[in-house]
Write a structure and sequence with these properties.
Blueprint lengths: L3 H19 L3 E2 L4 E4 L4 E12 L4 E11 L12 E4 H4 L8 E3 L5 H30 L9 H13 L5 E7 L2 E6 L6 H16 L7 E5 L5 E4 L1
Parallel strand pairs: 8-9
Antiparallel strand pairs: 1-2, 2-3, 3-4, 4-5, 4-6, 7-8, 9-10
Helix pairs in contact: 1-3
Length: 218
């Protein structure tokens, strides 16, 4: 029976890499793929957890850097996220390959995650960066959001998935609904907290759902 490492290698060669190239990615050396662009490196890389003959755990990391910044998804740049942060679960997501007849299920599921969550967000970030110009920061870091997301969790309100600076506004994106008064109240409090910091980068806070539809402005 093939080991988990052999199965992962087969999954990468015959399934993951061809699927990513069909989505528009190039490369694949050292398990790093990129969307072609002259000004930016839009990267998708494989990060490994446990690796043995019995199990291979892996996930994907995405990043956007200016072209001169570096070659790996871990380099500092405009944006970086694990794929789990882009999925509804909003946390770490790992896939595990183990020897057996169902090993390919994890591979196919991880490809679907890139197709439905990773690639659209990476393309959106790339489009935004092109429009804004090289070196422009259009987001708040996860560390800046950690405290406010903890408060949202306490109030049973969906977390902020993205926080970006757009045309002088701080735009918050999450799985919220205009019909949810609790979400509006809690997000208003979060917005007032952001505004009270006196950050000159924005003058108001806009909230939108995950489809980009405007909800509330504070």
């Amino acid at each position: 029976m093939a080991t988990a490492q052999e199965l992962f290698a087969e999954g990468m060669r015959a399934h993951i890499a061809p699927s990513l190239r069909a989505m528009g990615f190039t490369g694949g050396e050292q398990h790093v793929f990129r969307l072609p662009d002259e000004e930016y490196r839009a990267l998708l890389g494989v990060r490994f957890g446990a690796v043995s003959e019995y199990a291979v755990r892996y996930t994907f990391e995405l990043s956007l850097t200016v072209a001169a910044a570096g070659e790996s998804p871990g380099d500092a740049g405009l944006w970086r996220a694990s794929i789990g942060e882009l999925m509804p679960v909003g946390g770490e997501v790992w896939w595990e390959i183990t020897p057996g007849p169902r090993w390919l299920v994890a591979v196919e599921d991880s490809i679907a995650a890139v197709r439905h969550y990773g690639l659209p967000e990476l393309r959106r970030r790339l489009t935004t960066a092109r429009a804004a110009g090289p070196g422009t920061t259009t987001y708040l870091s996860p560390a800046e959001l950690e405290e406010v997301n903890a408060a949202l969790l306490t109030a049973a309100v969906a977390r902020i998935q993205r926080a970006e600076l757009v045309d002088g506004d701080l735009v918050l994106t999450g799985a919220w609904s205009r019909a949810d008064p609790v979400a509006r109240e809690v997000l208003q409090g979060a917005a007032e907290g952001f505004l009270s910091a006196g950050d000159g980068r924005f003058g108001r806070v806009r909230c939108q759902d995950t489809r980009g539809r405007g909800l509330w402005t504070f």
